[in-house]
Every structure is written in C-alpha cells, then in structure tokens.
Design a protein that fits this description.
By secondary structure, the chain is mainly beta. The chain contains five helices and 32 strands. The strands form eight sheets. It has a ten-stranded mixed beta sheet. A five-stranded antiparallel beta sheet has the order 9-8-12-4-21, with no helix packed on it.
C-alpha cells in the first residue's frame, strides 16, 4: 500500500469511527400509517421488580434504592424474565389490522452491585451483556411461546455517549400472530434483557403492544406510529412529527401514545407538551396520575386510569413509562399537518423510543398525493412533482395500497426526520406563563379569582398559622386560603389577576433559602 492509499484509508477509518460514536440517538421515522374505521389498544408491562411475581407498589423510593430482579410469572424454565398484560376487543370487531411489539431497557451489564465508599456510593458491573437484545419470546393466550426476532431501533452496546446506562430498543411486526384473534386476549413477553441489582440512577426495562383493529361501529381514524430513540437530559427537545392529515371539518378528537425509559416517581421536573395551532403556544399535558411537572414517573396509564389487567400490576413500574391519553381539542385541527411535541427534564434523564397518534376523521375521501410516495423526475436540473388524481380511501385501504404512477425509478419519500431545536429564554418565559395560566385551578370559597404566590401548604391549620406569623415577622403580608377539595391551608404572600405580574416576584423570592420552592397557584 503506497503512502497516499494509506492516508486515504486512515482518514476514512477515522471519519467512520467518529460518525459511529457521534450518533447519540436515532431519528423518529414512521412505522405505519393507515386509515381504519375502528380503534387502537395499547398494553404493556415492566420486566423488573422487587419480587418475581408480586406487584411493586412503593412510590416514594428512588429507582436506584431498589434491589431489582427479573419479573418471571410463567413458571417456564426456558425463560429468565416474563410479564403479562391482557385486553378485550369489542364483539363488533372484524379483525386486528395491525399489531406491533416494542421492547427496550437499560443494559450495561448482566447485574450491578453497590457499596458505600468514603465519599460516595460505588457501583460495580458484573457479567457482560448479551448482544442478542432483539430476541424475545411471545405467548398469545394459552399457546406455546413463539420466538420473535425483532429489528434493533437503537443499541448503545455499552459504549458511546450512553455507556453508563447502555439503553436499547427493538421492534417487531406481530400482526400475523394476532390478526385472527377476537374477544379476550392475553399476552406474555419473555426474555427481555436488563441489568439487575443496584444500578446508578436505576434500571428500567419493559415491553408494549400497539394494536389497531377494524370495527364498523366506530368512527374512521387516521393512525400513525413512529419508532426512534431520543435522549432528554439537560436541554429541552422539540420533535416534529409530520403528515398527520386529520382532514376534519372541526377540531379533531386525537390521542397520543408514548413509551419512555428511566422516569422516576420521586424526581420531578420532567414534562411533555404539545403545540396548539389555535393558541399558538405549547400546552403541557397532564392527567391525574401524571402531573405536568413529573409526567414521566414510572407509570403505565391509559387516560386517567392505571390498567390492572397486567401481571404483575405494579403501580411503580421502576423506570418504564407507557401512556395513552387524549390530546386537548384545541391542539390538532383540520389545518394541522405537523405535531410538535416538547420534552424536558430539570433533574433527571430519560429516553423515549415509541410514539403514536390517533386522529378521528369525518370523511374518507382524500387526494392520493397526500398519502402516496412523492414521485419526482429531473428535468433540466429542476425537480417536477407528479401529482396523482383524487382517489377514495376506504376504511380497509392502508397507505401502501394507494395507487402510484411511477415515472422513474428514483423515488423521494416524504421527510420523516424530526426537527430538533432549543428554545430561547424569552420563549421559555412565555411558555412558563402559558403553563401557569392553563394549569388546573384550586377551588377556594370566598377568594378572588387569580394567581397566588404560595410559599407553603399545610394539612394542619396550627402549623399554617405559625408559618404565616413567621413570614409576617419577616416583613411579608402573608395570608391563607383553604382548598375546598382537600381542606389543606395554603400560605401565600401576593396575588394578581395575571401570572405576569408576579412571575418576576417569584424568581426574587426563590433566592431566599427557606422560600426556594415558592410557586404560582391558580385559584378559582
């Protein structure tokens, strides 16, 4: 090999290595798009716990304080981990149109131990991780296990930017295994890999099954599902999911589904928001079990409910988050083509690998170019798009079945890569004010409607009085109000008709150590 060839080979090798290690995540891309008259189901479960069969319901612990072991419910010696979940299809269901299985976990080693050092806790990994994270087992109802070999969405392989947690995520289309099923369906997934023992920050692992079924008694809907891998840590992340096409004359009734790893019940500061075309701002999503400031909190939830049709049905799923919830009606409208979500965390780190949207539609007549792959040809160095004539999409028609007239073999698909950007300080302030203005209000008899700068809340009226007197001695005009629902006493020092008037005051008050957790509360 001469000198020039050697140098060329050397630089190619260096560039390839840089590209490999610089890739921090995998862009979200569409897995499936379809119009179906029917509905969807989302189930799943964790594969880690404190006991192989019993539910783990402690919610006031940090994940890294729990000595984790595999959940294993099947009494089958060929599996080392297994957990289950079930669902019931309506009797009017024609068939399951699409079913996809996803799984993932944090997996730097087989296990991890910890011991107290002089200054900090020291962790030690034990045993090399198995590289075959894409191989699992699937049991449907009372049948035997089937081997499933999925596609790897992302795998850090114990190196690169996520070496300490070494997360991975995989996917498999299991429509063939479920298409003929109806009524009650029980799913068990086995041999999902994760690190057991004590791991710094906590371990996490689990699976989900996303199902779309046909049912002529239900409304037609547009279903889109995405797979990718995104870390959320120090900076806010915005991701744009394109081509929603609600095609509704009015505001749409939509749902969002999502899975994430390493959410912690006790660590606050993480949130999920979605952009509203009508309000021209982000709306923080929340349910009763998912506060807007602790959204990813080791919970499996569907709407406001935590499904109990799981084995085990743990309240604390130890870092595995799975959700399906309504999107506010003021968000996705007839003119919405892109859904923009924003993810953030103030204290923790988490990873997301699955997201899906479901949008009700009032008509099934569409133009083919909105769904078919865009076909282009080069003419005098310019690109001319070929538009297909209108076509009627029936409830049975999926995206792949729309006819396309191919002009040349060169095909350019619609862009699915998400847009990622950081927000400025001004935007952050405006979104914080919007979040406050749209937060749930507290009902309190006799109080003026507005925004209150709250310093503390007490269940004991005596303690509330002592705290109020202390603040008054320090020069504040401290007052109280009662929460009608909980009868708790809130101690506040200022109030206003709009959050803008006391937002800056809040930042000043928070500089005082014993008032560092002061917050703005909406009343009445």
């Amino acid at each position: 090999m001469n000198v020039s060839s050697f140098l060329r080979y050397f630089f190619i090798l260096i560039f390839s290595s840089f590209t490999l290690f610089a890739q921090k995540d995998t862009p979200f891309t569409a897995q499936q798009k379809m119009y179906v008259k029917g509905n969807s189901v989302l189930i799943g479960n964790t594969v880690l716990g404190k006991h192989p069969e019993y539910a783990f319901d402690e919610v006031k612990v940090l994940n890294d304080e729990v000595p984790l072991i595999y959940v294993d419910i099947d009494e089958d010696t060929s599996t080392f981990s297994s957990s289950g979940a079930s669902f019931t299809l309506p009797q009017t269901t024609q068939k399951i149109k699409y079913a996809a299985l996803y799984w993932g976990g944090l997996y730097p080693a087989q296990s991890s131990s910890k011991r107290n050092g002089k200054r900090r806790i020291k962790y030690k990994y034990l045993g090399e991780r198995d590289p075959q994270v894409q191989e699992v087992k699937l049991k449907v109802n009372d049948t035997d296990y089937q081997d499933v070999i999925g596609q790897v969405i992302y795998d850090s392989k114990a190196k690169g930017p996520f070496a300490k947690e070494s997360p991975y995520a995989c996917y498999a289309d299991v429509t063939a295994q479920l298409s003929a099923l109806k009524d009650d369906i029980s799913i068990t997934v086995a041999n999902i890999r994760a690190t057991t023992g004590f791991i710094e920050g906590g371990a996490a692992a689990g699976w989900l099954l996303y199902v779309v079924y046909e049912d002529d008694t239900q409304t037609p809907k547009y279903f889109t599902s995405y797979a990718g891998f995104k870390e959320v840590s120090k900076e806010e992340v915005e991701v744009v999911f394109q081509d929603l096409q609600p095609k509704n004359e009015n505001t749409s009734s939509s749902k969002i589904m999502m899975a994430a790893l390493e959410g912690d019940t006790r660590i606050k500061g993480d949130a999920l928001a979605i952009y509203s075309d009508i309000k021209e701002n982000f709306i923080s999503l929340t349910t009763e079990g998912r506060p807007f400031d602790n959204f990813f909190n080791s919970t499996i939830s569907v709407g406001y409910d935590i499904p109990t049709t799981r084995t085990p049905a743990s309240k604390n799923t130890l870092g595995f988050d799975l959700l399906k919830m309504n999107v506010p009606d003021s968000t996705i409208t007839v003119n919405t083509t892109d859904a923009i979500i924003k993810l953030r965390t103030a204290q923790d780190r988490f990873y997301t690998f699955f997201l899906a949207f479901e949008t009700e539609i009032e008509t099934v007549v569409f133009e083919a170019q909105t769904e078919s792959v865009a076909v282009v040809e080069k003419v005098d160095e310019t690109i001319e798009e070929k538009v297909n004539p209108p076509v009627v999409i029936t409830p049975e028609t999926t995206v792949s079945s729309v006819p396309v007239t191919v002009v040349k073999t060169e095909v350019v698909a619609e862009v699915e890569t998400p847009v990622i950007k950081n927000t400025s300080n001004d935007q952050k302030l405006q979104r914080e004010l919007y979040k406050i203005a749209n937060s749930p209000s507290i009902a309190s008899s006799g109080e003026v409607s507005g925004y209150y700068l709250v310093t503390n809340v007490f269940q004991s009226k005596r303690n509330a009085t002592r705290w109020k007197e202390r603040l008054n001695k320090e020069g504040y005009n401290a007052r109280t109000f009662i929460n009608n629902a909980t009868q708790a006493t809130y101690v506040y020092i200022e109030s206003s008709e709009t959050p803008e008037q006391i937002q800056s005051r809040k930042e000043v008050v928070r500089q005082i150590p014993h008032l560092s957790k002061t917050w703005i509360c909406r009343v009445n």
